[in-house]
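Reproducibility note. Readers wishing to regenerate the assembly model reported in the main text can use the exact inputs given here. Chain order matters: entities are listed in the order in which they were concatenated for prediction.
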Amino acid sequence: MILVVLISLFFVGGLLAWLAEFIDPKLPRLVALLVCLLSLLLMLSLLGGDNGSWLASVDWPWLPSFGISFYLAVDGLSLLLLLLTAFLGVIAVASAWDEITDQPGFFYFNLLWTLAGVVGVFTALDLFLFFFFWEVMLIPMYFIIAIWGHENKNYAAMKFFIFTQVSGLLMLTAILVLVYFHYVQFGAVSFRYQDLLAVATSGPLEMWVMLGFFIAFTTKLPSVPFHSWLPDAHSQAPTAGSVILAGILLKTGAYGLIRFTVPLFPEASMAFAPVAITLAAISILYCAKVAFAQDDIKRLIAYTSVSHMGFVTLGVYAWNEQALQGAVMTMLAHGLSAAALFMLAGGLQHRIHTRHMPDMGGFWGQVPRMSVVALFFSIAALGMPGLGNFIGEFLALLGAFQANILMTVLAALGLIFASVYSLWVIQKVFHGEYDDGKFQGHRLSDLDRREMTFYIAMMLGLVWMGMYPQSFLALSQPVLDSLLAGAGAITAVAGQM
Amino acid sequence: MTLGFADLIPLLPLILVTVTVVAAMLAVAIRRRVMLTAAITISGLLAASVVSLLLLFDTNQQVTPLLIIDQYSLLFTLVVCVTSMFLAILSFPYFFSLNDHKDEYFLLLGIATIGAIVMVSSNHFVSTLLGLETLSMSLYGMIAYPLHSRDAAKYPLEAAVKYLVLSAAASALLLFGMALIYAQTGTLAFSSVLQQTGTEVFSDAFSIIALLMLFSGIAFKLSLAPFHLWTPDVYEGAPLPATTYLASIGKLAMFVLLLRFAVDSQALAFESVVTVLSLLAVASILGGNLLALLQNNLKRILAYSSIAHMGYVLVALIAGATVDSAVDIEAVSFYLIAYVIMTLGAFGVASVISSSEKEYDSIFDYRGLFWRAPWLAAIFTGMLLSLAGIPLTVGFIGKFYLFFAAVEAGLWTLLAVMIIGSGIGLYYYLRIIYRMLKPAKEMGSFREAGIESLSAYVVLGLMFVLLLLLGVYPAPLITLIESASALL
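Running the prediction on these inputs yields the following structure tokens for the assembly.
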């Protein structure tokens, strides 16, 4: 029941935020903040539950003639991601606080509805419902980019929408084929996760069906070769949009891989693992290289996102406990660090109206607080021990090493590349000569108290993940164990490749 | 066979609409008052809707050899009557400032509805043709209606003549097909063409040619590629309410009839017929979507998108060749109803801001609609997203149903085409939505002629509610359709 309250909180809150605009244009942001905080509290209340099975679930009939039910459930893995969602929701609202002045009601409506879709994706265990939420989070995000975006927003929003929607239709087809298999084998139509796990798939068709899921999820993740929408979407989106996109939306793809693709198709995934791992290594190295070549600071961060997400794919397809834990930790830590970096870039753009790095330089003397914060998150992103990203990437590499030595060694080079581009950004933007002639009169100002508050909150989060990862690992471990047991370890075979 | 009183009860919706038209005509003869004519038409259609709803659950009867009144036909009679009623409500403010007699438009609309009701209830070639021609004849008039008005829609006469000529050609093809089928089966009632084939007199090829003739004629009416060439011109030239009628009821009635014919005649047992239909579907989906990309006129975009949508529905029909269950019939029925809702809503928004003297049919006119008229823009966005098949809308459930049928039948190529088509389709739907999101150049009302009518907004609101309601909780409609298609 608590899950229904949670999802409807976002949906209703969105409508309220929209209506609140007619009373006072400053009211929507308050409503949105309250909704996110309230949902965070609700999620925290789930923490005490009995771990191992579902912490909470709802199961109502929806379309009985298709065997579709309104089936939501939360376990440790979902809960971790839900907490990330709500936390970044608060951060996103805070980062939009002063930036969004045009149509604020509609903006917060879209923000909250995106979050509603994400919460649905992380909790749905009926594949129809999952797909439903998968698409629900798309349209409000489209609006966020298309209305409040920057100079080339139409192109970016359209590209984002078409990539995700078409890959989504592939997934829908794959879901339907799987359901049809279930119908043939068990004589009943069902979209329930547990029922579909029981379907014995085999033959070349299994590979195609698996690919339907894989493409949908790696488009969202994204991984090479489906990543080209991401730099456009990110560079055009308003700051809060980038935060949601990088922090949460990308994680739905990773979640889909862990929860659905591999468990539903263990054999096909086993056979496909070498390809997936290779794609992951290519993502890590290629996008790190491309990131280095960018002049636009947001595009640069976007490419680093793709690069870091490669570690998640790597971890998932190594499919052993360390690697999976690494993937989950990377998702959480990257959620915070990428969101923070996008906020910094957004903050810079808000102040000096450019994202062009060659125009920047010498900011350290002007805005010391912002510089320190930027240095912290850059170092976090490059994988400094003691911070969350290190734990994630280290575990992912450790696990992957058991699965595929060559690709892991190559992927590990990504850590070096990450140091290069991270420090390079710091050097270009914060060191060197300061020249404000290029900012056309816009003034560079340091972080204010509101901004410092949420940056510090995110820093603490990363330090916590780095220093005491066990508190997160303990939550996801039972879930990953049961997924591993269900699907069988595919490491053995993958390792021989 | 004599017609008893008991036979008249199932025919009540048809009779009511006919009486309405006669009453409206007499009223016009006595005194021309457009308000009165419209009121008579609307209330008559409302009565017919109510009656068909009442009859819906326990009627299954062949009335005369020409018409079958079962749950399937009554369901669509209901849809046709309700849609016509809404269209009459939308037409009233649109034509209000027309510098000509306005009453006859409502008569034509009523007569067209008679034709559509006959079509959805038909299981005999004679009634098929009667219904079809009644519908088409009235549509010629509706399309050309604002002919004498100086500022009216751009090319009503051209559109009407184009539709007339091509429609007549299609009817001729249809008739030829019917004649060939009659030559084999010896009956004009829909019946299996399988029993007679393979005998000495008639080879398979004979039935196949007959069926292909028939399907070509139908494809003309449904504007399936490559028989679609009239569609964009007629859509663009006709006044908006007439376009809407043609796009919603015109397509719906024809497809309902096609479905019944396909089931009764077992035409899909012939592999070559299935191949031809698949090619039509592929051509329509790809052609419709690709051509829509190039348009800047809203009516033309929706015309091409309707071509694509008819292609999608055809895929479900083709699925009927291989599946055992009734999922194909359900999918077609559901999608048609969804399609009517979306079409009515999308064209409805355009006709609410337009009038017979000034149509806003370029997508550039819709710039900033979100900030000028947020509710209209929300409704329009909903309709477009639904046409694109996005969740929370009925279009998503409809597309899901089509995919379900296609997967069950294993039509992988057609599925791939549908996915590609939907992907292309997104582009032009989003293009319109994006225009609406841009800052407005000017604020305030669009209206230059015609009147504001609260009832038109109520209709649009109702469509929007239906769109969302059936998109989130379609179970009642699905149950209804399931029981209706079980009997087919």
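We highlight two features of this model. The interface with chain A takes residues 371, 385, 388, 390-392, 396, 400, 403-404, 407-408, 415, 418-420, 422-423, 426-427, 430-431, 433-434, 437, 473-475, 478-479, 482 of chain B (CB under 8 Å). DSSP finds 19 helices and two strands in chain B.
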